[in-house]
Amino acid sequence: MDFDSYDVGPFFDEMFTPDGQPRPGCRMLHDKIASLPPGEILARQAAAEQAFYDMGITFTVYGHEEGTEKIFPFDIIPRIIEAAEWDALERGLIQRIRALNLFIDDVYHKGRIMADGVVPRVVVESSSGYFKECQGLNPPHGVWCHITGSDLIRDESGRFMVLEDNLRCPSGVSYVLANRRILKRTFPQVFEAIDIRPVDDYAPLLLDMLHAIAPQAANRPTAALLTPGVYNSAYFEHTFLAQQAGIELVEGRDLVVADGYVHMRTTKGLKRVDVLYRRVGEDFLDPQVFRPDSLLGVPGIMEVYKAGRVAMANAPGTGVADDKVVYAYVPRMIRYYLGEEPLIDNVETFLCWEDKARKHVLANLDTMVVKAAAESGGYGMLVGPAATPEEREAFAAKIEADPRNYIAQPTVSLSRAPVIVDDHFEGRHVDLRPYILYGDDIRVIPGGLTRVALRRGSLVVNSSQGGGSKDTWVLGPGAAARG
């Protein structure tokens, strides 16, 4: 099985140049794959899939007819990013996170950016991620977005752009770690020969970040991951990360507020918890402050948080910057707070709440991707070129009925990477979700989750919509020379 019949097509290809030659950082991997005996690559793919099955690496698709628990699709041909490209991305992501954090802090305090008209107040206060109950909160070190996963794409020219930001409970990093483990078994000789930056230290870095934001009074802080429970779509990830970081996995019913602190119930009695990695949304976090019918949260936890006796990552209220309408203003935030030009551009975005933009979107739905402001997982969106006239008409009615809830972006021909299809290779569209940790400082994990639209021609990479993943190799400075 080789790449002789592989069609690069009119897209930017992650492994090949337009004339079909391997890119410099991909040559050694390409040559290794080409040298394998017939059937070997398929055997390695099958072994990788079996490893995923044995490890129980799954996700949940709600309402799926064949059952909800799915093994996460995985393709063993990695996506490679060269050192200089990654260094530029890292600088751009650090810049973006600094600005987003300053924005969230400003929103819940003086609101200068709104008073100055840079971001409209109506956009912020109408966001489903904005909680007036978080006004005046002061998270440790002034950091709100401790864990972020911003989605990046490449266009036809190979330029990286930010598609959206994920600051509520960004998921998927467990697949990054699992993918790497399995690829090390699949291509051990390549790992020995190329300088590939590690991702295995994510769990200890996560733990360091949690300890860094712990209340100062906690000499040996206890951290725990707060999960909604076994029926959550990312429950595998919750258990995996808790185990890897060496922290407790707890549900709301395992926690109680007593004597002004948060405690978890154990067989030996109550034990104080100093830091919570929060995978429960604000709505459900504290029934005394947010939704009174919530059974997932901890009554009284917000009072403890305000008193500085427990820390949470991400801080409550962070989701205001997760809104896809707010995303459109991030370049303005960078200029406003940092006095710099954005190092990574946004995809061109039309805000349907603006009359002129809405008219343009409605007149060009057949060329647009339209997204609901607060949806994720590929839900609540329209891919105009792939939609029927009836689907576009129905979506136009939704936009007219609730314009604040929708943004639109021109359909970008995402870059492609080779995947195994039956007994040959075909190109499939990909994106990239790097993960950023922010405690004492900002750390960008080298690589991230490359998501793959496994259906031919599809631009939707989400696992809930039939997407899969690849390992992402970020090369060290000397890798290309050695390759």
From TrEMBL:
Q: Please list the residue ranges annotated as the Circularly permuted ATP-grasp type domain.
A: 78-453
Domain of life of the source: Bacteria
Coiled coil region boundaries:
none
Write down a Pfam family by its short name: CP_ATPgrasp_2
Name the record gives this protein: Circularly permuted ATP-grasp type 2 domain-containing protein
What is the organism of origin for this protein?
Solidesulfovibrio magneticus (strain ATCC 700980 / DSM 13731 / RS-1)
SUPFAM superfamilies xrefs: Glutathione synthetase ATP-binding domain-like
